[in-house]
Design a protein that fits this description.
The chain starts with a strand and ends in a 5-residue tail after the last helix. The radius of gyration is 22 Å and the shape is globular. The longest helix has 18 residues. The protein is α/β, with parallel strands linked by helices. It contains 17 helices and seven strands.
């Protein structure tokens, strides 16, 4: 795998089967990082602002009274013409920010929903959805994204006579067909908070704010010391900061607990190479190849190389393979459409760009694909 591997939840969290690392105190090197220029805090993560209270107490109050708090809230979140939430993976927001923007990644929308549910005194159960992981990337950093949702139920002691179809309902911001049959496991609110902080760390790292990234991921580990993905993120922060010894210590412990952790292996290869330990890097690279012979983006990188040398037929075949195993990726569909365009198949190029636009996960990505598609639509008369 090229570049660094970070675990986030954008749906951003990493599904890691490794036993949790030990408590993090030995891993922190606070003295090497400057104080952050932004506020590193989560005390307002679930806080309702005045606009949210007005929405709950005025705009949907009748609906909650008539349908009940569980069904009324869920219908308000999903019903067209009411809240009208959009998925946007560009940044992780707290409850009030997600409500104001009317958009967020799955974690942001789960946090916002939980904030409303808490105000209604509902019981909230957070869940990580297995087998729903996706990959994305920004520059040289690849992100493993897992999906989270939540279940809502009536307050403890609140009983009604007869059958209650809204006794326990799952709130999910993916289409039902995307999660049908997938297993979900309960997670604690402390882990949800850690996921939020881990996301903020990854986003700060992507923006070049390495000091802020350190303090965010440090906070994630403080909140939930058994949340293994945060340790991998901490190691990547150290890599970016040039603290190779600290990165090696974290990754070494992750691999001691789970030698098959491919994300930790990928990053340890980089650490070993930068430390001049070529033999160790080679051994780790061979192990990673056995565990993951076709890593994420394998065909994609081969396809972009083929595009650079003008071999568009090979590139199209390689991009099609990547689409076949990761159909959710707008980036893969975009490059497949570009290869089709280079080969003169304008109709298929348009079709792939339309899929790329539909699968985009941020406003910036959507605008990019929409602009390319519009130019293709004006190409010739069809």
């Amino acid at each position: 795998m090229k570049g660094l591997a970070v675990a986030v939840c954008a749906a951003l969290l990493c599904a890691c089967a490794a036993p949790p690392p030990p408590l993090a105190a030995p891993y922190f090197v606070d003295q090497r990082f400057a104080a952050p220029q932004e506020r590193i805090a989560v005390d307002d993560l679930f806080a309702l602002d005045d606009a949210m209270r007005h929405y709950l107490q005025v705009e949907i109050a009748r609906q909650i009274r008539s349908e009940g708090p569980v069904r009324g809230l869920i219908d308000a979140l999903h019903r067209r013409g009411q809240l009208r939430l959009d998925y946007d993976a560009a940044s992780t927001r707290n409850a009030a920010q997600a409500f104001a923007a009317r958009k967020g990644n799955c974690l942001s929308l789960v946090i916002m929903t939980a904030a409303f549910a808490k105000e209604l005194n509902l019981q909230v159960t957070y869940q990580a959805v297995d087998d729903a992981e996706t990959w994305s990337r920004h520059g040289s950093v690849a992100y493993l994204n897992e999906h989270v949702n939540l279940m809502l139920s009536r307050p403890v002691g609140d009983t009604i006579q007869g059958y209650d179809s809204a006794r326990l309902l799952t709130v999910d911001f993916l289409p039902a067909t995307d999660i049908l049959g997938q297993r979900a496991r309960p997670i604690s609110e402390a882990q949800v908070v850690a996921m939020y902080m881990n996301n903020r760390a990854a986003e700060a790292l992507d923006a070049g704010r390495t000091d802020a990234a350190y303090w965010w991921v440090r906070g994630a580990i403080d909140r939930s010391p058994d949340f293994a993905p945060a340790y991998n993120t901490l190691a990547v922060v150290y890599l970016h900061h040039g603290d190779l010894d600290a990165a090696a210590r974290v990754l070494g412990d992750l691999l001691a607990r789970d030698p098959d952790d491919t994300r930790a292996l990928s990053n340890m290869i980089i650490v070993a190479a930068r430390l001049g330990h070529g033999d160790e890097a080679g051994v780790l690279r061979a192990r990673l190849a056995r565990l993951e012979p076709l890593p994420p983006y394998h065909y994609f990188f081969l396809g972009t190389a083929a595009m650079e040398r003008g071999d568009y037929a090979t590139a199209r075949e390689l991009f099609a393979r990547e689409v076949e195993r990761a159909d959710y990726s707008g980036e893969f569909h975009f490059w497949l459409g570009l290869a089709d365009y280079k080969l003169g198949d304008i109709d298929e190029a348009r079709r792939q760009l339309a899929i790329a636009m539909a699968n985009s996960t941020s406003e910036t990505e959507h605008a990019l694909y929409a602009g390319k598609l519009e130019r293709l639509r004006s190409y010739g008369v069809h």
